[in-house]
Amino acid sequence: MPVNLDPDLLSILVCPKCRSEFRVDDEASELVCTNPTCALAYPVRDDIPVLLIDEARETKDAEASEN
């Protein structure tokens, strides 16, 4: 399900862990941190981003195994 967030909201949201910008992953309904050393993916549920570090998913291991 595609992420349906206001572009203005998306432009001010940052990763709570490292303060980097997000990229949208529509396929996974997540906001993914653009900082490669952080790279946490935060879920978007009912068009509401859940920006809690405890709710985030690590993507670094997943990307390494794909290559």
From TrEMBL:
The lineage of its organism: Bacteria, Bacillati, Actinomycetota, Actinomycetes, Propionibacteriales. Gene3D superfamilies: 2.20.25.10. This is UPF0434 protein GCM10009554_80820. Belongs to the UPF0434 family.
